Amino acid sequence: MRVKRRIKARRTPWTPHHIDTLMGGLENTMGFGDPWNLNTSDERREEILAAMRAAWMELRGALLPAWRRLFPGTRPAAWWLFESKEPRRVTAGPGLFVMRDPEALPWAKRLSFGAPCVFSAEDETDPSDYESQATYLDRLGLLTAAERRAPLTPLSDGELVALAAEVDWLAACGLAAPANTVAAAVADAVPAAEPEANRAGDG
Question: Could you tell me if residue 121 is inside a domain?
């Protein structure tokens, strides 16, 4: 009787640069490339975003809890890009002008942490505010029990990005590995499959 050999899936060699982009956003594009560069073709943009999605889904189980421990009431950039249910709501003003401009290019209408990030002169004279990340997560029932007990992070998105850039995410995940073994170390910390009941409220 012929025995079928089980082939072990090859791990993608994600690096610390990839992780920094997933956590802090596209301000750091060294890992994947910049999907919103004006010289990036539509096809290349889709390839970059697909690679980012694949990395996030592979590393999410280790990275998301680490982020929530450090910055309760907020979520990393990749969560907003691939998991958020809707944009953050406008709480004052008309919303950023670019989102109402029919001639604005797609890159200008991109969201960062669930909110528009490209400002124009019109926004100086008619400013707008958006709900905080914590308000968004609370409104949609996505705060964890631990977050509801903890003081929520009182930082702007810009301040959050700056702090996230200073974090050693491997150490934050309880891992210690040189850069060339980052993928194996992080992947080993991710459960093979999470029970559906545990995923229901783990936004």
Answer: yes
Residue 166 placed within a domain:
yes
Q: What DSSP state is assigned to residue 161?
A: H
Each residue's pLDDT expressed in tens, for the chain with a length of 203 residues: 444 433 334 456 788 888 989 998 866 566 788 887 778 888 988 998 899 999 999 999 999 999 999 999 999 999 999 999 999 998 888 777 777 778 877 777 788 898 887 777 677 777 788 899 999 999 999 999 999 999 998 888 989 988 998 899 888 887 655 444 444 444 444 443 333 333 445 67
Convert 9-37 to b/e letters by CB count within 10 Å (16 or more is b). eeeeebebebbbbbbbbbbbbebbbbbbe
Residue 115, amino acid: A
What length is written for the chain?
A: 203
Domain that holds residue 93: 16-198
Integer Cα distance of 15 and 65 in angstroms: 19
Give me 4's structure tokens.
């079928």
1 lies in some domain = no
Q: 111: which strand partners?
A: 116
Instruction: Determine the Cα–Cα distance for residues 49 and 64; give it in Å rounded to an integer.
Output: 19
Residue 83 lies in a domain: yes
How many domains, in total, are found in the chain?
A: 1
